[in-house]
Design brief:
With about 220 residues, the protein is mainly alpha-helical. It is built from ten helices and four strands; from the N terminus they run αββαααααααββαα.
């Protein structure tokens, strides 16, 4: 009955609703394979420590000052990119071959950290790791590539350098793309995700949406 509602009841209901909303958000992130770079993410803090935070003004929104770089990194984290593991629609994994090496499945972590077929990317990768002061193993398993990609993204001081490199690699792979690719006699067309990335408009709108969603 409405007559039984008091300040304590309202506060209890608000707390329960907030918990449900945040739990739902975390479950949605964990269950979405496109958001694999956000799985088990810990937020880097200015003092070098890390903390699990459901919703906050994320470090890359603060640290990456160049809009195009921030926008590109944001899209990568949200699972929108030109890399074939995220952009080809209706084709099996074995058809999502890297356009540079023509061997490995084309994932963001492969293009950014593993592929050695594009000389410009290899050179910029070496410069990135020299700048941030860590040594990348000569060979990386797929799991290790995901680990290192998360490591260089979710770091308070490294993320501006990482975002610049991610932007460069994405542009290189986009140039290879030309919107369409052919594997055997089947034409593979990038799905609407890439068009969505272009149509998202002002990068600041994306940043604000991420802040509200806690991503």
């Amino acid at each position: 009955m409405l007559i039984d509602i008091n300040a304590l009841t309202i506060k209890t209901l608000c707390n329960a609703l907030c918990k449900h909303v945040w739990d739902s958000l975390k479950n949605d992130i964990r269950s979405n394979p496109r958001l694999y770079l956000l799985h088990d993410r810990e937020e880097p803090l200015p003092d070098g420590s890390y903390k699990r935070i459901t919703s906050t003004l994320r470090h890359y929104l603060l640290q990456v000052s160049i809009t195009d770089h921030r926008h590109c990194l944001t899209n990568l984290l949200l699972g929108y990119s030109t890399f074939r593991s995220l952009s080809l629609h209706g084709v099996p994994d074995e058809a999502r071959v890297c356009r540079a090496c023509l061997i490995h499945r084309e994932t963001p972590e492969h293009a950014i950290l593993q592929c050695s077929a594009d000389l410009c990317t290899v050179t910029q990768r070496a410069e990135l790791f020299d700048t941030i002061g860590i040594t990348l193993p000569k060979t990386l398993s797929d799991d290790a590539a995901i680990f290192y990609l998360k490591k260089i993204i979710f770091h308070w001081d490294w993320v501006p350098h990482t975002a610049r490199f991610v932007h460069s690699v994405t542009a290189t792979w986009w140039d290879m793309c030309a919107k369409k690719a052919t594997v055997g006699d089947k034409q593979l067309v990038l799905d609407e995700d890439d068009d969505m990335m272009e149509d998202m408009g002002d990068a600041d709108m994306v940043d604000q949406a991420l802040y509200v969603a806690g991503l």
